[in-house]
Every structure is written in structure tokens, then in C-alpha cells.
Design goal:
mainly alpha; 72% helix
């Protein structure tokens, strides 16, 4: 369930004119930018970009990049992009970090539908002139490379059918792997990267029933916490098994303690506002006894704060 509040009908030409006016002159009317873009769907935002280009022979994205700054600029930039293109950018940024953030790659690969992931791969090729698989392989090594390349390459079956016998046999394989700390076993990678999400959830449930604990807890208990590969497996399993709980934890970690991980906070709110952010908000409240709006309001400020709260569904 989305949190985005957008009008059914709007004039993309009038929106483009209003944004041009907001960026014209010495100062920028950030409130106008938020009130328009913060209340438009992905399709409506693309219409506005096209209208702006036709009216002013200028790329709206580049204009906003030059007018805005800091975390607010980054959030608006990622919001205005077409969703698959945005995920391609997020993946590239994660890959090209001095220490690649493979959790973002796993998140993109494991929370999307097969069609959505395929769209991200196509957008990546269009923007960067090489494949996502190629870039992931070039910036990882060993078993982690095997896992990540397989995750971003897979076109999973997306149906609801479950094979209970298969779930049992593959739960046994995962149990043996966790007991023997053989996390990099080829069969573990095969299971996680080829089975449908419905089948994997059945396997994870069977593992919990047989072992008395979840597979993610087993990986944390049995594996060294600094084991990069075991951590990657946990991220993949959590994204597949319950993405809402996964995203809640990303947000919680982003705003707890001193300082704010603005990249992580922005990523979740921007990418989920049109999908399931309302559910994530409910999970957050249940876990923390405070609303996500209150937490974000306390931990952010200025136009960045106003924009995130708008995407969270807060009334202007």
C-alpha cells in the first residue's frame, strides 16, 4: 500500500510551467517543488519531464540538480527518475563505492518482481552501456560474486505454486549447510537464486519448523558476524521472506544513534512510497512504538524533512 498522495487528474504542462517559475531567478521556491513533485506518480512525473523539455528545451532533472543541494537534491533527483532507471542508478552507486554496498544490489534483486528486475537490467544497460551482471562481477570476487551475479541475472518463476516435498528436501540442504558452516555450498546458491519466492518461503518455513529457529538466526549464530558471504545470504533471505520487516530495519538503523544515514533513509522512502510504504510504516510503529513520521521529523530538517514527510503521506 502506497503512501503517495497524488491527484487523479493534473496538467503536466501547468506543472512544468510552475516548476520553471520555481527555479527562475536568484532563489528557488523549494516549497513549490515539493508540493508538485511530492504529489505526482511515476507516470505523472515522466509527463512533467517531457512537457518541461518541450517547453524550455531543457532537462528538468539537470535543472533541479543545479538549483537544489544536499540530501534534498539527492532525494528529489532519485524521486523524479523513472523507477527502473532510479534502481539502475542506486545499483551503480552501490557497486562503485570504495567498499561496494552489496546489500543494495541484493535488495534490488530480491524485492523486485521478475519483470521489474528485468526492467532495471535494461535501464542499467541503457544508462551505463554495460550490463548490471558485468559490473557486479567486476567489483566482487569469489563466492560473493557467484551469489550476486546469479541474483541479478535470474528470471524467477513468479507463480504461487509450492512443492512441499521439494521444500522439505531443500530445507534439509540448508540445515546441513548451516550446521557445517558451508554457506558457500553450490546447492545453497542454487536454491536461493533459482527457486520462486513462494517456493523459497515454503522452504524457509519448513526449515524453521524442523530446526526450531529461522534460517537467518542460524546464519547469524553459526557464522562469523564478519563473514561477508553469510551476511549476504541473510540479506537475500530477509528480502525474499519479508521485505517489509527488512525495510523497517534499514530505516531504524538509518536514524538511530548519532547522525543519520541519509542515503539509506532516502532510498527506502523514495523507492517504496508508491508501493508498500504504508505497510512499512505500520511495521515500524509496531516495532518502535513511535510513528515513522515522528521519527523522520525528529531526525531530519529543512526541505529534506518536508519532502520525506510529503512522500510519507503527511498533509501539507
Amino acid at each position: 500500500m502506497a503512501t503517495l498522495v497524488a491527484p487523479v487528474q493534473h496538467s503536466h504542462i501547468e506543472d512544468a510551467k510552475a516548476l520553471y517559475k520555481a527555479c527562475k531567478g536568484w532563489g528557488t521556491d523549494e516549497k513549490a517543488v515539493i508540493s508538485i513533485l511530492g504529489h505526482r506518480t511515476a507516470a505523472q512525473r515522466q509527463q512533467i519531464r517531457l512537457a518541461y523539455q518541450n517547453l524550455y528545451q531543457e532537462d528538468l532533472v539537470k535543472r533541479l540538480e543545479s538549483e537544489l543541494s544536499g540530501a534534498f537534491e539527492k532525494a528529489v533527483y532519485r524521486w523524479i527518475l523513472e523507477p527502473a532507471d532510479r534502481d539502475a542508478v542506486l545499483a551503480n552507486v552501490a557497486i562503485k563505492k570504495a567498499c561496494p554496498d552489496y546489500h543494495v544490489i541484493i535488495e534490488i534483486a530480491c524485492t523486485h518482481s521478475p519483470e521489474e528486475l528485468l526492467a532495471v537490467r535494461r535501464a542499467y544497460q541503457l544508462r551505463y552501456k554495460l550490463s548490471l551482471e558485468e559490473d557486479v562481477a567486476a567489483h566482487t570476487t569469489g563466492d560473493l560474486r557467484k551469489l550476486l551475479v546469479a541474483l541479478v541475472s535470474v528470471l524467477r518463476y513468479d507463480g504461487p505454486e509450492i512443492n512441499a516435498r521439494l521444500a522439505k528436501s531443500e530445507a534439509d540442504i540448508l540445515e546441513d549447510a548451516t550446521k557445517n558452516k558451508a554457506f558457500n555450498h553450490e546447492e545453497v546458491i542454487r536454491i536461493l537464486t533459482t527457486r520462486s519466492k513462494a517456493q523459497l518461503m515454503a522452504t524457509f518455513n519448513r526449515y524453521r519448523d524442523d530446526c526450531g529457529t529461522s534460517i537467518t538466526k542460524s546464519l547469524l549464530r553459526e557464522g562469523d558476524q564478519v563473514n561477508e558471504f553469510a551476511a549476504a545470504l541473510r540479506t537475500a533471505i530477509r528480502c525474499i521472506n519479508n521485505s517489509n520487516k527488512y525495510y523497517e530495519k534499514i530505516i531504524r538503523n538509518a536514524i538511530k544513534g548519532a547522525g543519520t544515514d541519509e542515503d539509506a533513509l532516502t532510498r527506502v522512502i523514495v523507492t517504496r512510497a508508491e508501493k508498500d510504504l504504508k505497510v512499512i510504516k505500520e511495521v515500524y510503529y509496531k516495532r518502535n512504538s513511535v510513528t515513522l513520521e515522528q521519527a523522520v521529523a525528529k531526525d531530519t530538517s529543512g526541505d529534506y524533512n518536508a519532502f520525506l514527510l510529503t512522500l510519507l503521506g503527511k498533509a501539507d
